[in-house]
Design goal:
heterodimer; A: Rossmann fold; six-stranded mixed β-sheet; B: mainly alpha; ABC transporter involved in vitamin B12 uptake, BtuC; about 70% helix
């Protein structure tokens, strides 16, 4: 049905897909699994025509195709249901179903009646009682998904790609989705089911393909495999040489968080951080790790709970400035949007958090500024050829070093690094780990959030597992294995 | 002497913060060619050449006096607008603030109140209205465009209700002093130099660029975003009122309809001057050049006896041209390494 032949895709600094080849049979439910960042989303984007510049070829029914646009991919029979549903909430269901392909009567008038009728027919076939006239924005996520499926069927899609379809569904809704998928299968429609929840994969999929670090590790039949094998395929890789040697030592308590809660994001989170320690937070996307970081750095205010830094007790910060003054600095996950002001220069970005310190009254002290910039550029080996270089033009790794320098300049005691190695090449990753090690040598405490398990395991002293906004388990480095953490995160008890 | 000059140049040219003394004056002149205001300076020269050949009397002293006064009022309003646009916002209420300040503040003139009370009151009114803008924009999660569209009508409405549309005229001659000769232009230059210094060399300036370039990133770096936004709109209000003083001096009467359409002229000057409408990049100097270019073209057209109805059209074309140039610069600018601010 669909054959991927040596698909590769490079992003600046990262090889997102590396010679991926596998086939999907007609009428099967094909599971695509992998850790965060394994290349699943990139593959879907290629298949749905969003990414058009890739290497390799895709065959549909033996014919080589190259998608020019999402519209083109749809007309070739591939419909994709993204995790963030792509419908217009202000329009009724039937108009969404026919969006971009409205049937027209003579003179270009949109044939609303036939649109409504056809949508109604397909919705009934899908056993849904959604009224085609309701606005999509009023529907639950589950029903919106059904509308998306309806849209795919109206388009005569032969392949439906579902990206993490169950991420925001309830138990009951998941059951309904599964019976729907069964129905699609009976109608000879191929489903590519992307998820990292293994229970689901094993319930619904016929074949499972595992991606890891952009490579296709292999495809297995469900009957001949078991979750343990898949987990090993997902995480197995050698960990030596990737992380700098680390001397562990634990000092006095630096930070204690007690019962931190924020409605819909965090539930009763309590943990502590000691001097000289790196504490890793593992979790899947949406587990609440970034939300925790944001609450600690003053971007959001927790509803209950308290944060103790040294001897001082705070019940949350109302502005990032307060957190900085308390000695907590945060390296955001979204480097472009939250970490850097992309259109400013290295120099300007680097001192952004300490403008008060380097200015006398209102004037900036240029000499002090240059001195600080030069020091960090030298110490962290940031590769620039001029401090007035626009930060956007640096590579991912160097950009990240600028953000780290900005945090270091604040002289904080506690650092929260949220995905510091995302979009950074292997060499720079190593350097960032080294910077983290050096920090702890100086007696600072580090909270390390990452979606890459090996990284968490390779560098943390303790590991907290988060799921659904709660801390579910604490591991000491020695007792943690990729399998045991993955087991906790994917739903085991 | 040379050292002093170098210090001054250091303040106003990009990369000038390297005070290692190796840079010569010619280095700055050479580097000046590379900075982003250069193209528009070139257009100004071209226009001057064009008009001096085609328009007799262009070089007359009177003409330049007229031109300078015309630039002054819009130029000062545009300086405030530049600050606002640099933070990624916009202020449509500048014209209304101008009218409000001079109309309400000027009501003391027929009552015989002295000038040293009237002037501060006018400036204070403008500052206050700007402050109100800033507070509303930072409190209500609605784009500045919408809020200031509202306050533009509100301020103008209050002005009309209170004055009932009646002019204040005649006004005592001491009020026209500020609008005579090259004095308006002199004030414009002071404002421009002051705010060039503020934007390039103070904490406020640095934060303005940072907020416009990335509000989230600035917030996470501990920049008090709300405070600086309020400051910027307040400054814009103050400068509007200040240009109101000059307008009164120039025209010799106070008119509640004063300043209608100034917001558009100011935005035009800002954009033509190379400031990105999305914030984060641009300069006060550019705005000065932008206002100059606009004033030059409009005066030139008037002198060539071109129908005044053409003026709006020409301004519009200039704005569209400038914005296309800006987006072109952004596309090409991907390879640009050194900040040209």
């Amino acid at each position: 049905m669909i054959t991927f032949d040596h698909i590769s895709k490079n992003f600046p600094g990262v090889r997102a897909l590396d010679n991926v080849s596998f086939s999907v049979e007609r009428g099967e439910v094909h599971g695509l699994v992998g850790e965060n960042g394994a290349g699943k989303s990139t593959l879907i984007k290629i298949l749905s025509g969003i990414i058009t510049d890739y290497e390799g070829r895709i065959f549909i029914d033996g014919q080589a195709v190259s998608f020019r646009s999402p519209h083109h991919a749809q007309s070739l029979g591939i419909a994709t249901i993204f995790q963030e549903l792509t419908m217009i909430s202000e329009l009724p269901v039937f108009e969404n179903v026919f969006l971009g392909r409205e049937p027209v009567l003579w003179g270009g008038i949109v044939d609303r009646n036939s649109m409504r009728e056809k949508s109604q027919k397909v919705l009934r076939y899908l056993d849904s009682n959604v009224d085609p006239d309701t606005l999509v924005g009023r529907l639950s996520i589950a029903n919106q998904q059904i509308v998306e499926i309806c849209k795919a069927l109206v388009l005569n899609a032969k392949v439906i790609v579902m990206d993490e379809p169950t991420s925001s569904l309830t138990e009951h809704e998941i059951e309904r989705l599964f019976s729907l998928i069964q129905r699609l299968k009976d109608a000879e429609i191929t489903v590519i089911y992307v998820s990292h929840k293994l229970e689901e994969i094993f319930r619904i999929c016929d074949t499972i393909t595992v991606l890891r670090d952009g490579k296709c590790i292999g495809s297995v039949k469900r009957e001949t495999s078991h979750p343990g094998e898949i987990i090993r395929m997902m995480v197995g890789r050698s960990m030596n040489e990737r992380f700098p040697p680390r001397e562990r030592k634990q000092g006095e308590k630096l930070l204690e968080v007690r019962g931190l809660s924020r409605k819909g994001e965090l539930e009763d989170v309590s943990f502590s951080l000691y001097r000289g320690e790196i504490v890793g937070f593992a979790g899947l996307i949406g587990a609440g790790r970034t939300e925790l970081a944001r609450a600690l750095c003053g971007a959001t205010c927790p509803h209950t709970g308290e944060i103790q830094v040294g001897q001082k007790i705070f019940c949350g910060f109302s502005h990032p400035r307060e957190a900085l003054q308390a000695g907590i600095s945060y390296l955001p996950e979204d480097r472009k949007g939250e970490g850097l002001v992309s259109c400013l220069t290295v120099r300007e970005n680097l001192v952004l958090a300490i403008l008060r310190e380097i200015s006398s009254h209102l004037w900036l002290n240029n000499r002090a500024e240059s001195k600080i910039v030069d020091r960090f550029v030298k110490n962290l080996q940031i590769k620039i050829y001029h401090p007035d270089q626009v930060v956007e033009t640096l590579s991912g790794g160097n950009q990240q070093k600028v953000v780290i320098s900005k945090l270091l300049a604040t002289q904080s005691e506690i650092f929260i690094f949220d995905e510091p190695t995302r979009g950074v090449d292997v060499g720079a990753k190593y350097e960032i780990y080294k910077i983290m090690n050096d920090l702890t040598q100086e007696g600072k405490g580090l909270i390390f959030i990452s979606s890459e398990l090996p990284e968490i395991l390779g560098i943390s002293d303790r590991i907290y597992c988060m799921k659904g906004g709660r801390l579910v388990k604490e591991f000491y480095c020695e007792e943690a294995t990729p399998e045991s953490i993955m087991y906790v995160l994917t739903g085991g008890k | 002497m040379r050292k002093q000059l170098r210090k001054v140049l250091c303040t106003f040219l990009p990369g000038g913060n390297e005070m290692n003394g190796k840079k010569t004056i010619s280095w700055y002149l050479f580097n000046g060619v590379k900075f982003r205001e250069f193209p528009i300076l070139l257009y100004i020269l071209i226009m001057v050449l064009f008009f001096s050949f085609t328009t007799p009397g262009f070089w007359a002293v009177r003409n330049f006096e007229n031109l300078s006064r015309q630039i002054a009022v819009v130029g000062i309003v545009s300086t405030g607008m530049t600050l606002v646009v640099l933070t990624g916002g916009i202020d449509l209420s500048v014209g209304s603030i101008l009218a409000f300040s001079i109309s309400i503040g000027g009501r003391g003139i027929p009552l015989g109140r002295p000038m040293w009370i009237i002037y501060p009151v006018i400036l204070l009114l403008g500052t206050l209205l700007g402050f109100i803008n800033g507070v509303l924009i930072t409190r209500i999660a609605v784009p500045a465009l919408i809020i200031t569209l509202g306050t533009m009508n509100i301020f103008r409405g209050i002005t009309m209700v209170i004055t009932r549309g009646i002019y204040i005229t005649p006004i005592p001659p001491e009020y026209t002093l500020i609008g005579r000769g090259y004095l308006p232009f002199f004030f414009l230059l002071i404002v421009i130099l002051l705010f060039m210094f503020v934007t390039l060399r103070t904490r406020l300036g640095r934060n303005i660029y940072a907020i416009g370039g990335g509000e989230q990133a600035s917030l996470y770096s501990g920049v008090p975003v709300v405070k600086y936004k309020v400051v910027v709109y307040t400054l814009s209000g103050f400068l509007s009122a200040f240009s109101g003083l000059i307008l009164v001096g120039r025209s010799g009467f106070i008119q509640p309809q004063a300043g209608v359409g100034y917001e558009m002229n100011a935005i035009a000057a800002v954009v033509i001057g190379g400031t990105s409408i999305f914030g984060g990049s641009g300069s006060v100097l550019g705005t000065f050049f932008g206002a100059t270019l606009m004033g030059l073209i409009l005066t030139g057209l008037t002198m060539q006896a071109v129908d005044p109805y053409w003026q709006g059209l020409v301004t519009g074309i200039l704005v569209v041209l400038a914005i296309s140039l800006d987006s072109l610069r952004q596309i090409r600018g991907r390879g640009q390494l050194i900040s040209k601010r």
